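User: Predict the full complex structure for these chains.
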Amino acid sequence: MATSTTFWEKLGFRKASGVSEAGWGQTLFAGLISLIYFMPVLLIIITSFKLQTEALAVPPKFFPTTFFGLVPEAYVFTPTLENFTSVFSRAFTTGAAAQSTGFDRFFFNSMFIAGSSVLLALVIGTLAAYGFSRYPLKGNDTYLFIILTTRMLPAIVVIIPIILMFRIVGLSGSYPGIIFLYTAFNLPFTIWMMKSFFDELSPDVEDAARIDGSSELRVFFKICLPQVIAGLAATFVFGLILTWNEFLFALLLTGVDTRTVPVAMNQAVAGGGIGVLWGLLAAIETLFLIPVFLVTFFLQNHLLRGVTFGTVKR
Amino acid sequence: MTIVTKMKGVATAFSFAALMSVGGASLASAEDVTLTMAVPDWPPTRIMKKMFDEQYKSATGNTVKLEVDFIPWPDFYTRVNASLTSGEQKYNFAVSDSQWLGAFVEGGYFRKINDLLDADPEFKATMDSMHPNPLNAYSTYPHKTPNFYGFPQMPDVLVNYVRADILCNEDEQKNFMAKFSKKLPCTPEEIDDIDWDMFEMIGQFFQRKKGDMLAGKPADDDFYGIAYQAGKGYDFSSMQVNGFIWQYGGNIWDETQAPAGQAEGVVNSPEAVKGLENYLRLIQYMPPVAKTGTMDIFKSDELFREGKVAMNVNWIGLGEASLDPKTSKVSDKLVFGLMPGVRGADGKIIRWSNIGGQPFVLTTWTTDTQIKEAVGFVKWWLSPEIQHQFAASGGQSAIKSVYEDPKYVTYRPWNRAWAASLDWQKDVWHVPQFYDLLTQQQDQFDLAITGKQDAKTTLDNIAKYQQNLLTEAGLITK
Amino acid sequence: MTMTATQQQTPGFLNVAPDNWKLAIAVGLAVSTAAGSLLSASASFWVVGAMVAMVAASFVVYAYRRHYYGGLLVSPAIAVLFVMNIFPLLWSLGLSFYAYQSNQQSIRFVGLANYARLLTDDLKAPELWTNLTNTAMFTVLTVSAQMIVGFLLAIMFAKQFPLRRYLLILVLTPMMLSVVAVGVFFSYYYDPTFGLISQMVKSWNGEQFILFSSKTGAVAGIVLADAWMWSPFVMLLVLAGLVSVPKYLYEAASIDRVGSWRRFWTITFPYIRGLLMLALLFRTIEAFKMADLVILLTKGGNDTMTISYHVIRIANEQNKTSEGAALSYLMLFVVIVLTNLYLYIANRRSRET
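Assistant: Here is the predicted structure of the three-chain assembly.
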């Protein structure tokens, strides 16, 4: 039994109370690393408050105020909220009145389309993963592998048949079409991920429940599923992130009403007869980041909960 | 009444009703016609839409709606291509780069308009009132034959963007004269008279480091004298290189000579090599990003607007951003002039250049009613009054009566270079293999620009590739 | 597995019965490929739809007759995947045996000519080889970087410490950015005149730093952006595994005074191995398709052209759909070989332990 506090415990990297807790030392260390990692994103967010003429300043302007003279003038820019309003409404030609850009619609579309397709994939995929895990067929590995191969080709290869298919069935530019397509995109990862979580569960508890007379359905919902919440959360987050930013299929398969933000984002690149509208692009990206950020933040707890049953690992 | 009589009565009633409805329909006047158009999302097209919404009235009395799909430039080709080739048949009009004509005409997507011109003498007159160079480039396929397809939406040429404040500065003038014994150009007329030798001297002279004196005060950052496009993407180097090749007496593969016109021997002729060498030699005086092969038209424009370059050769289409104080740090310090050229033996400058800009075309699935309205729209668009309005808002016009009007040069500072440039415009190939040829050429030019191979090897590689490809395609026969 | 009904014999392959799903799949695939090649687009689509329905029906019957829940559970996923993924893939595969250009109406069967040309033609073959080696190089570099950085980050976050929730989300953000934003902003960070890296270097030695002036620089720039974006993916997967290690195991280990290295291998690693493998697999597959960042940062300059970008140029810009399809299938072949290798190694390992 450890008696005195060790070096690491003093620094706060480890708590004497338990092996998986740490103190403020760890916080500082992790904080530094995290901030450095986050820096490029922070710069994008800062740019969203800059005017076009200050976005590319040399030396670069990081600070919105001089903090009472602590920061030299050269590094200070004048913050503006103009970019954020421009996202939703701006004048497309000099001197014209501001017009709605349709971005409110695009944000809604992105959220609706990504959300539905990931949920759908989660439901269908988890069921399938359970099936693959608990009722393995002889060629299980082959089937799983084929499912994986659907992710291996670049999108451009299948784009023409898919466009044709959509057009024939009348799905082009509609919500069900693109949602269905994204569900198919998310399925391979969902299946593989959830299967891996289901495989880790020990069957003892399940068998015990079955012997007690629970139906398969109850076993699934009451015993297996709660143990893989972490997997579900992670899969949801990943699926959301991947679908949220998908570009090529959205470009070619969404109509004006169903357009998503990544497609519309290019308005700020080589739009307006100019190279990059830095402030506008940064503002769009910052706003676009928020929904996914929030979802991930709130799902963190589930992600990190881990196994709480204390079952013995096989 | 007998059943027969009843039937007769009913039949009569029915036919009477039918007659009424048919007669009524033919008496009905206004129809709602929608024209769907695919355009790049930038000011010239936004202005066109605005002017249409505010001013257009169809001569036929129908209500015409122009549904415009504004597609950002980076995705423009992808979307339009996918839409056309997938059989979607969505657009009635599409803006097209002049070089895409061959690919899409052969695919059966772009509609030939000769019949429309022949049926409407007024329309034909409008087309004839265009300068032949843009007309050939934007409208004819095969190139320069009387088969017409398109109308200019935004014609464009390369011009010289110049920092008048830097060049006209007294100290700079004095020092330049001392160094080169030549006057540093300052006024628009002097700028027009710049040849590539002078351009090079300006490049050498204005290479300043941060802190060096620049126009009377220390430079706040590194400064460069010259820039033009030198990028790997799309056509962002070919458009400038072609100008050099033509000016030095060389040529690109000439599609109007097919199938006799060769690529070997023409593309890599000594004159062409000289042209490319000169293009490459000037890059050392440009901002360092040129050496990465990523200095496309947007990058060089951005550098110019941020005040890092004294003289930039670029499309007029990007000019608005330079004049707008919200996007340009040098908005009030600029003059514009003709693109530099090669000074001939007679002292006159040879200014061959690759034309830019976009036409718009009709698609083959547009119905007859739509065609009628479309012709009306095009005639309206190309009418001098509307073209003047367009130019006054920053657009350009290829119609002679418009750009030769004395008011034209007052619309924008670069308009003074417009009319003179048009005579010198040529174009790159329009054949269906255009993208294949362009991509290979751009790849090779990129190797030269980044210093990995010399001009001769580059052009030899290009010539060989083009010879093979075009022979296989049947466009070259020995 | 409960067996409440008498187990029926699995029918022989050719036994035409409603529950012979193997036969149904075979027939379905054959008919679909044939239809895709021979019939017009609309007709073949409906044929394939009918095939899918047939396969799905046979699965359901099979499953129902045997209380075979596996089939039932799996069939919705298979159906969706077949329609959305497999059918277009088969179509492209079929197309690769023709000489078809999407902007022309003609179509001509050429068998393996496209593949042969890609592998042997003087101009195309070396290009293919260079692209393949570049892609391999990128994949190795970026996946290794992601695995290492992701793993280290996961270790850092494994313990519960104050503010962990807030710091973790910061590190997860790079994954959430769109590629356009990352590409555009990173090319700004790397820019010699305006970029931050160049300015930092300039304050040292007065010269602008041109990262993309050499292949090494260009590759480094691309790999950095890509690894930065996706290391959080690996981190999250590994973290999910790390936190699921039962605490009492660690406590037991500390009682026994087990060294940290041994503790890691015997306790922690088994929990995260599966997830590490998953991360490796998926990141490799995605890395092989790398094109977006290359397009945005270098446009393939400085010899950074990847296979995926090349396919995009061929299929999209030049409309050489068949050639693009052939190239992609060659690429697919390589990826399949690679992933099979991974899985073989992973399965062997798990059989050993």
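Chain A touches chain C through 113 residues (CB under 8 Å).
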